Amino acid sequence: MLPELKIAQLRHFVWVAELKGFHAAAERAHRTQPAISLSIKDLENKLGEALFEKRNAKSSNAELTPFGRHFLPQAKELIAHHDRVAQDMTLMAEHKTGHLRLASVPSVASRMLPDILSRFIADAPDLHISFFDDNAAAVLNMVEQQQVDFGIASAWRSDEHSDKTFIPIWQDHVGVVCRHDHPLAEQAEVHWQSLNKHRLISNGTSRLLEGTDAEALLGSSQFYVSNMISLIAMLEAGLGITTLPRFAFPRDNPLLTFIPLTTPEVVRHLGVVKLINKSLSPAAEALVAFILKNSSIPDTT
């Protein structure tokens, strides 16, 4: 049966060898000299060989045996490996290293996460982050398939995703987006029925209208565009109008206007999505806590 070597005993051995004495090693270890002697004796018993020559009464120096000289570099290697592993695990537990994977809907990805992530990794330069930007359905699927540690998406029907939990963080109001020269652009707010006489373009967020008075708009949409870049291009070209959450509305776009939809008032709840009964990694847990502590409603003006 192989001996089980204790790191503390290996450190004592190295200190005695390097400092040339048990007294100096005891001071280094903040132990008594008899305690260091017992530690070395126990290590020798485990190895089955003496590590130090019998001490000469005329000298306090500790001299290594041939076996001890052979064992010294290996003991140092074992200590170094132990310390590297201990340090790596400590850094991982403190979310300062490792690999974190998350997914988010585009509106949060572009509005909130750049500032949040830049502050989060300020004290964790060795933490690697893989980030995926996609629609809510794709984010939920990545969470379900465990391709990411957690996701950031809108709330869902609980009966459709009973294996997940949702932590709400932001509220996002839905409005109408059109060209700045569109007849609706001058209105301060709109009623859903006033949209029927205009060409409608639905998109991935149009599902938010389901179950509201404005649900009828979904059936009257002439176009459906899934990609946000393409959708914005269509709107800029004056092809039609669409409904979007305010966070998804492109800021500083001189060609487009956002008008709040007040009848009905439709609110999208955004937050953290993770699997039930599955623990997050230390880095992911720390990021979720950081988001909850530091999140605020972004400036949408």
TrEMBL record:
<dbReference type="InterPro" id="IPR005119">
    <property type="entry name" value="LysR_subst-bd"/>
</dbReference>
<comment type="similarity">
    <text>Belongs to the LysR transcriptional regulatory family.</text>
</comment>
<dbReference type="InterPro" id="IPR036388">
    <property type="entry name" value="WH-like_DNA-bd_sf"/>
</dbReference>
<dbReference type="InterPro" id="IPR050950">
    <property type="entry name" value="HTH-type_LysR_regulators"/>
</dbReference>
<dbReference type="Pfam" id="PF00126">
    <property type="entry name" value="HTH_1"/>
</dbReference>
<dbReference type="Pfam" id="PF03466">
    <property type="entry name" value="LysR_substrate"/>
</dbReference>
<keyword id="KW-0805">Transcription regulation</keyword>
<keyword id="KW-0804">Transcription</keyword>
<dbReference type="InterPro" id="IPR000847">
    <property type="entry name" value="LysR_HTH_N"/>
</dbReference>
<feature type="domain" description="HTH lysR-type">
    <location>
        <begin position="5"/>
        <end position="65"/>
    </location>
</feature>
<keyword id="KW-0238">DNA-binding</keyword>
<dbReference type="InterPro" id="IPR036390">
    <property type="entry name" value="WH_DNA-bd_sf"/>
</dbReference>
<protein>
    <submittedName>
        <fullName>LysR family transcriptional regulator</fullName>
    </submittedName>
</protein>
